[in-house]
Amino acid sequence: MQKVTPFLWFDDNAEEAMQFYTSILPSSRIVSSRRGPDGKLFTGTFELDGQEFMALNGGPHFKFTEAISLFVRCATQDEVDDLWRKLSDGGEESQCGWLKDRYGLSWQIIPNALEELLGDPDPEKAGRVMQAMLQMGKIDIEKLKEAYEGG
């Protein structure tokens, strides 16, 4: 059991969200479900690629904001494209690799290449990569590499 676990408050669709999230990320599963007297999910625990989360059907009192997001490191453009497509379906695309899913939760879908290129000791190369990223919604690794090379 993790010592610190993110706890996500949903209106009335926590079970649907847990099923959705665990269906799109590898090594993910629903761990437990606690139901109220009406048979509906009250709280649940799930893992996304080994990271534990808890979910609550808490009602409409609180909404997610961009003040917290789930940061997903991706090895390939295919992985970025797949997660972006699935998570933004019914949600809202934003800038610089950010999106909101259909439940209002913010995600950052970031290829490892972005961090590598931004971390280059040459400030001009890293600056070109930053400028290219600021023009993107979904991150495009090839365009980042073109910017890095000066193209």
Structural class: alpha/beta
Mean pLDDT over the residues: 97
Largest sheet: 4 strands, mixed
Measured as a percent range, the helix fraction is: 25-40%
CATH fold topology of the largest domain: 2,3-Dihydroxybiphenyl 1,2-Dioxygenase, domain 1
Along the chain, the helix and strand elements come as: EHEEEEHEEEHHH
Number of domains: 2
Distance between the termini: 48 Å
Shape: elongated
Name a few traits of the molecule.
4-stranded mixed beta sheet; 2 domains; 151 residues; alpha/beta; 2,3-Dihydroxybiphenyl 1,2-Dioxygenase, domain 1; 5 helices; single chain; elongated
Topology:
Blueprint: E1 7-10, H1 14-24, E2 29-35, E3 41-48, E4 51-57, E5 69-74, H2 77-88, E6 92-93, E7 98-100, E8 106-111, H3 112-118, H4 123-134, H5 141-149
Parallel strand pairs: 1-4, 5-8
Antiparallel strand pairs: 2-3, 3-4, 6-7, 7-8
